[in-house]
């Protein structure tokens, strides 16, 4: 496998609105990010992925872009961005931007012109279907509740939006659209940024003729496949973009690709195909979705063996061909410790265990802001406290169907995107040190106990555990490039595997349960004196139990050995 800097890197995702506010208006901003670059340096990450900072009316917090060539006023100016880039580079940090090109804002000048009349020059920049008011062109459901079609009175026609009605989808079949996007992407790369996270990229192709879906209630991932997921056009357009733009720069690209299997992912990331470097898959994010009419909003328990199955398939099928992007949380998902670990007694322990998992798989690890101090989900007691358009639309749609306020809240507590969007908890002062003003979304109450200042003062904190993991990964070839092999496939609580390179073999042991469990490894796997590289358990205890072939694991224990 070819060596590249982005395979050897650890990435850190910033949601700028919630990261750090420098001027007291309650909204995180670019100067805020600049003020925390030393903190990120201390953590040891290499790449920052910054969520959209382009000019936007903020219907979807920047994922609705009004001007691709300008910075959102609340976040600062282009000069602030240039300063951020320079300051990051000075510290050896790379910056990748979010590239949101499945759709724009309905306030983008292209859309304003497009909607003016069917004769407009920009009409075909978007997807229009004539019809009659009240008669939808088909039954497709948008990701944010309600139909994908919005009626436009002026031109007596519907436009398509897979996300909110303020996010009309671009028409990628129009070569002029493609040309505009290439020029824009080049413009940013020429500024010196280090790559892109490409938003919702596998949705840019839509099924010809817009046929009805068989499940009018709510599209789940399977039927959606045929209509706007991973269609051939996506690959044509990515290859074109790669050839014309990406391949002329030393950058990294990671596409967002929900509903994608490892086999489909290889079409994006197999090196010879020259499309993207990695994709974020969602198979492990969807394991706890009941699906069907509940969509993502319910909670379905899943056995650990299912997680092993899913992740193992990604590890094995991409090995030697493409590269994985590994994560357990981001700005669209609940907090990982609340979802896969324990927010109570074992919060820090399980946060470290989950970190060990993501950082020891083959692939580039992505840390989501706050994860490195074990931030948790939030439970606001009223829908009014939530800000997310997806949550607001879900609330409205469910109220119409008669669901109680309490039941809606319960669903939002487990799955709502705002769980990940409460302000970063810097210290135990008012508003967690995020702002001197009124934050745009309330701070999680637990900030007095969970914050960066506390973590930096505690040598056994989650933060220092991440720091050590990141440093260890850099020193080992097996850690980055080694082949993954699953052990104890059927074990209900323990997830264990090895990573093997020509010179080295690592053994990773993770207890995903709150129980003490006994570990029984296959005979002959471990040599006489394995070297313990990192553990979240008491090191002295772990050292005493040097006999790995029969060892007790503490609740949520994690350990990495060189064997
Ligand atoms: O519903 C989905 C697929 O089943 C989603 O995973 C969807 O594709 C995904 O949420 C897209 O997310 C990205 O684009 C959105 C934005 O709101 C998210 O924050 C962003 O990560 C629209 O730009
Ligand atoms: Ca601000």
TrEMBL record:
Q: Which catalytic reaction applies to this protein?
A: Hydrolysis of (1->6)-alpha-D-glucosidic linkages in some oligosaccharides produced from starch and glycogen by alpha-amylase, and in isomaltose
Q: Which domain of life is it from?
A: Bacteria
Q: What is its EC number?
A: 3.2.1.10
Signal peptide: which range, if any? Answer: none
Which Gene3D superfamilies does its entry note?
Glycosidases (3.20.20.80), Golgi alpha-mannosidase II (2.60.40.1180), Oligo-1,6-glucosidase, Domain 2 (3.90.400.10)
Q: Which family does it belong to?
A: Belongs to the glycosyl hydrolase 13 family.
| Protein name (database record) | oligo-1,6-glucosidase
